[in-house]
Structures are given as structure tokens and as C-alpha cells.
């Protein structure tokens, strides 16, 4: 499964977070619907996840659209000894997310 974001091209803001087991098909469906490619870009954030991992990552991203919130979330997971697999996925998401924000002008 893949967790992805849809970014509005004109503002570089995230408009949608989702998960799918067929990225190409889902991208095509979004482009035909509410998120045409001339206005939005669909980007994979992390791939190769199980269904449960993808659901957890999707919820993490939905809850954490800003660097500060995601950073706080990681530290909270560390403090409460959250399951290691979810913590690792969250850290991977954090790295991908900050890289995406740093390089968003290249989108």
C-alpha cells in the first residue's frame, strides 16, 4: 500500500491525504474527479506498507500537516512507548514530509 498527498499547484498546500494499493489507478481516478492534474499534484509519501501500516500512516499525516505538530507527535510516541513499528513509520513520514516541504519549490 502507498500513502500519498494531493497538493494544490498554485499554493503548494496539501489538500488531501490518502492511501491505496494501486497508485496509478487512484491517481487517474483523482485526476478525473475533484483533483485535475492541471490544478493538483498527487505525490507518494511512502510505499510498500501493509494495509494496517498504511492506515496508521494516513491518520498520522491527516493529523499532522505542520512540522511542529508532527515533531511533537514523534516525541509523544517516544514518551508513551508507542509500538515500535508505528513509531518507525512516523519517523519515516517525518523525514519524507520535511524533505517534501524543503523541496516543494521543485514540484
Textual characterization of the structure:
It is a single chain. The two termini are 23 Å apart. The model has no long low-confidence stretch (mean pLDDT 77). This protein has a 3-stranded antiparallel sheet, with helices on both faces. It is globular, with a radius of gyration of 14 Å. It has 4 helices and 3 strands; from the N terminus they run E-E-H-E-H-H-H. A hairpin with a 5-residue loop joins strand 1 and strand 2. With 107 residues, it is an alpha+beta fold.
Low-confidence stretches at least 5 residues in length (pLDDT < 50)?
none
Oligomer: single chain
Query: Can you count the helices?
Result: 4
| Rg computed from alpha carbons, rounded to a whole number of angstroms | 14 Å
Strand content: 15-25%
Number of strands: 3
SSE class = alpha+beta
Separation, N- and C-terminal Cα atoms = 23 Å
- Give the proportion of residues in helices: 40-55%
* Biggest pleated sheet: 3 strands, antiparallel
Overall pLDDT level:
77
- What would the principal axes of the Cα set say about the shape? globular
Amino acid at each position: 500500500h502507498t500513502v500519498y498527498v494531493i497538493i494544490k499547484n498554485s499554493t503548494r498546500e496539501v489538500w488531501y491525504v490518502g492511501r491505496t494499493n494501486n497508485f496509478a489507478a487512484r491517481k487517474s481516478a483523482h485526476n478525473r474527479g475533484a483533483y485535475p492534474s492541471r490544478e493538483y499534484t498527487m505525490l507518494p509519501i511512502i510505499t510498500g506498507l501493509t494495509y494496517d501500516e498504511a492506515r496508521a500512516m494516513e491518520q498520522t499525516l491527516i493529523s499532522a500537516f505542520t512540522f511542529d505538530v508532527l515533531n511533537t507527535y514523534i516525541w509523544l510516541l517516544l514518551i508513551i512507548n508507542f509500538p515500535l513499528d508505528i513509531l518507525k513509520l512516523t519517523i519515516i513520514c517525518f523525514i519524507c514530509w520535511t524533505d517534501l516541504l524543503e523541496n516543494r519549490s521543485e514540484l
